[in-house]
Design a protein that fits this description.
Shape: globular
Number of strands: 14
Bound molecules: flavin-adenine dinucleotide
CATH architecture of the largest domain: 2-Layer Sandwich
Distance between the termini: 45 Å
Number of helices: 11
CATH topology of the largest domain: Uridine Diphospho-n-acetylenolpyruvylglucosamine Reductase, domain 3
């Protein structure tokens, strides 16, 4: 199928883009890499009256590094992250996650911001960003609004972004040198979306120990009692704490999805304790 007709705008500044969006009264959509929006338009699941191309906006393409964090423009592509063209606050984890998104052709165009706004539960940044305590920076008619990554995804394919806002950047705190972190996704073959995702982060000097399950029916689940859960999983068994974690993520006992997520947690803990768990 082909998309319905639409108008096309190519603003030169963020302010212009926000004005175009406001003028469209909810019927226009920002266009980033087009890797999700394009197929949705072709299937007529999305029929925006106008597309506002945001890929050339400087505000969305820049990266800033300070002593404590890295702020990555929303229009930075997965490929740029994979290639190490921007500083990695997670000591190489973002780079390896980027390399496992889809295929290189998709990564060349798909963007960090587009993926986060699309809010597919099976996608990668939507699950990783809350684990690493990121903050989203959204620009609207009244300026910049900060949204904690744990509050970002409010439902399947729904983010906390309002229809008159543009995601400008994502700020990611730098992990300490001694931090350990892991992210594991199960997919049938490289390039496919995840069927089960799990991740862990231990950063003792910042007093952080967190755990996540993703690729369920909704937002990723931040798991409580992460340290005890890690200890249990290190025994090689998904015991009572893992069971509680899986249930809290909305997975029904003994289903295929439950079992896949249990395996994802076990493998994510193995990664955490391996060389790959170390900061690079
Ligand atoms: C074959 C295939 C396999 C894939 N596999 C994976 C995978 O394994 N893991 C994974 O994570 N993803 C995967 N994806 C999705 C891919 O990562 C897309 O790049 C991503 O979901 C959308 O990014 P985009 O830049 O193309 O956004 P677009 O498609 O341009 O936009 C997506 C949505 O976000 C909105 N939007 C985009 N940017 C902004 C912004 N800055 N502010 C406000 N709204 C914005 C658009 O209006 C639209 O609603 C796959 C895609 C394909 C086609």
């Amino acid at each position: 199928m082909k998309s319905a007709n639409f108008d096309f705008e190519k603003p030169q500044t963020l302010e212009q883009a926000i004005s175009f969006l406001a003028a469209s009264q909810g019927l226009g959509k920002p266009l980033a890499g087009g890797q999700s929006l394009g197929p949705m338009m072709n299937m007529r699941l999305a029929q925006p009256e106008s597309l506002i191309d945001i890929t050339a906006l400087d505000a969305l393409r820049k990266t800033e590094e300070t002593a404590s964090d890295v702020t990555i423009g929303a229009a930075i592509t997965h490929a740029a992250i994979e290639d190490g063209l921007i500083p990695d606050a997670t000591g190489g984890l973002m780079r390896s996650v980027a390399a496992d998104i889809a295929y290189r052709a998709v990564r060349n165009r798909g963007t960090l911001g587009g993926s986060l706004v699309h809010a597919d539960p099976a996608a990668d940044w939507i699950n990783l960003m809350p684990l690493v305590n990121a903050t989203m920076l959204a620009a609207g008619p009244h300026g910049i609004r900060e949204i904690d990554a744990t509050q970002w995804m409010v439902g399947t394919f729904t983010s906390a972004l309002q229809e008159n806002e543009i995601l400008v950047a994502v700020r990611i705190p730098k992990l300490s040198k001694e931090a350990r972190r892991s992210y594991y996704k199960i997919n049938r073959k490289p390039g496919e979306f995840s069927e089960a995702t799990a991740g862990f982060l231990i950063d003792p000097s910042r007093n952080i120990c967190s755990a996540m399950i993703g690729a369920t029916d909704g937002p990723p689940t931040h798991l409580s009692r992460a340290q005890e859960l890690i200890t249990e999983l290190r025994s090689g068994q998904a015991g009572p704490l893992a069971h509680a974690a899986l249930i809290s993520a909305g997975l029904e006992s003994d289903t295929h999805a439950y079992k896949l997520h249990a395996v994802a947690m076990l493998r994510a803990v193995s990664l955490l304790d391996s060389k790959k768990g170390e900061m690079q």
